[in-house]
Hints:
Elements: H1 2-12, H2 18-24, E1 39-40, E2 46-52, E3 55-61, E4 67-72, H3 81-109
Antiparallel strand pairs: 1-2, 2-3, 3-4
Amino acid sequence: EELILFLNGIKNEKIIKSETATLMLQSSTQNPNYAKGWFVNDVGNIWHTGSLKGASSMMAKTNSGYDVVMLFNTRPESQKYFPSLDKLMWDVLKNLQDEHKAVKSKITLN
Length: 110
């Protein structure tokens, strides 16, 4: 629950000032998809991965308004693990967005 609150607080100044968030999420010229500890892209999505022995996580704040936190009680050694986790997260988000659009469309038609 605290991780979701943190994600919400990044952009609404409840946890950090907007100037700090801007600095924290500013990418470098050497790597335009990585900021200070955060992956970023040009459409406003931000996400972070992490792991310790026996645990791994991924969290994201998306431009669609969805925030996601995934916590796992494992950390496989496979090089495919985090790319697979990344794909899973974005696939789930796309399905949520598609479902939201479908529901909104039904409401509009009625």
